[in-house]
Amino acid sequence: MLECLLYRRCPARRPAFYRVEITQNLFSEVSVLREWGHCGTQPRVLVNCFSNLRDASKAADGFRDRALRRGYLRAEV
């Protein structure tokens, strides 16, 4: 399981988060799970399935890069 957690501070609103995770599902596919929302609220979740890890990794990198361009920052763990 690979995971990337990003956050964005919003002055007028609660801080926002964006999480991208790569996992293998029960059907021998690779899933890219995206979860986003504002802290303290119900997050939105979207799962995309891919037949191989390479395609899933490329998609996850694209989702992460798009979030970084929208102002999200890497979480300090």
Automatic annotation (TrEMBL):
It comes from the Bacteria. Residues 14-74 form the WGR domain. This is WGR domain-containing protein. InterPro entries: WGR_dom_sf, WGR_domain, YehF/YfeS-like_WGR. The lineage of its organism: Bacteria, Pseudomonadati, Pseudomonadota, Alphaproteobacteria, Rhodobacterales.
